[in-house]
Amino acid sequence: xxxxxxxxxxxxxxxxxxxxxxxxxxxxxxxxxxxxxxxxxxxxxxxxxxxxxxxxxxxxxxxxxxxxxxxxxxxxxxxxxxxxxxxxxxxxxxxxxxxxxxxxxxxxxxxxxxxxxxxxxxxxxxxxxxxxxxxxxxxxxxxxxxxxxxxxxxxxxxxxxxxxxxxxxxxxxxxxxxxxxxxxxxxxxxxxxxxxxxxxxxxxxxxxxxxxxxxxxxxxxxxxxxxxxxxxxxxxxxxxxxxxxxxxxxxxxxxxxxxxxxxxxxxxxxxxxxxxxxxxxxxxxxxxxxxxxxxxxxxxxxxxxxxxxxxxxxxxxxxxxxxxxxxxxxxxxxxxxxxxxxxxxxxxxxxxxxxxxxxxxxxxxxxxxxxxxxxxxxxxxxxxxxx
Length: 387
Known about the structure:
Elements: H1 2-9, H2 15-27, H3 30-58, H4 60-80, H5 85-97, H6 102-113, H7 116-129, H8 131-147, H9 150-169, H10 172-176, H11 193-220, H12 225-245, H13 254-268, H14 275-286, H15 289-303, H16 309-338, H17 341-360
Helix pairs in contact: 1-9, 2-3, 2-8, 2-9, 3-4, 3-5, 3-16, 4-5, 4-9, 6-16, 7-12, 7-15, 8-9, 8-12, 11-12, 11-15, 11-16, 11-17, 12-14, 12-15, 13-14, 13-15, 13-17, 16-17
């Protein structure tokens, strides 16, 4: 299940760069490429909660299959059709809207695969292993798109979408787990305090990570090997943190402790812009990223009914997508004002606000120590009155 969902989500780490490089090459404009990429991101952000909720109404396999087919056709259209800028934007928006909700699906399935004591470590393992996507995928797509061609890069995205998506959809677990139709109005689940916290803190944490990426590129340049290596070290730190700390029970202060590690590591990046210093401080910051994400997944699952889990994860994913866009934008503005250090300042501030929120709202975090973190059942036993 883990391997299938990782391959199904692997194109998430490839598609943005593939679209950016292809549109820039065909139009000769980075501005046009950025607009097209923004359309894809908007589509993903809007679709997340919607397609996730559909899985409860229509079934996971139907929704995943429909979105996979539309997404693959959209990517093929971007690669093969002679398009102008509005055409690229329309197809990119459609590709974003039809991104298969694999992340929501698999995190809804996990509680049905393991017992309650294994669920939190499983979320941590999942958060750690997803770093493989962000370590390997950008390298692969950049190599293919620059050395072979941007059309071939988009075709590779489509091929992996088909292979990974089909493997996940055909997994027996996807067929066995049935999400009940939610009785809540659309969007109500995000108003639950733990889900709102997961969405807001996810926005801030991923915003910090996005600002780091912009800062590293601004520090070491697009063409240098250092940028890729430093970002890989950041992801490796997250992988190590998730594997090392995944077994620790989650209490109300778990998020604050993990974000403190991230914030301290990011703050230290501003001391000097040396490749070894930046790499070392980002390794430290990375140690808290996957464990913090594991807390977000666990509190979301433990605070909602099973029928609402997919939509809840959809909202959390939308928060993270918006955070990535906001972090990149703020970092870019501060780089123009203050050089590369501005991006690390932006990353530190995003993480610091997340830390403050997690401390201020500590009472809203569920205490999962010694408690079953599985979703609430949709049917409750009725107590009979006996005489």
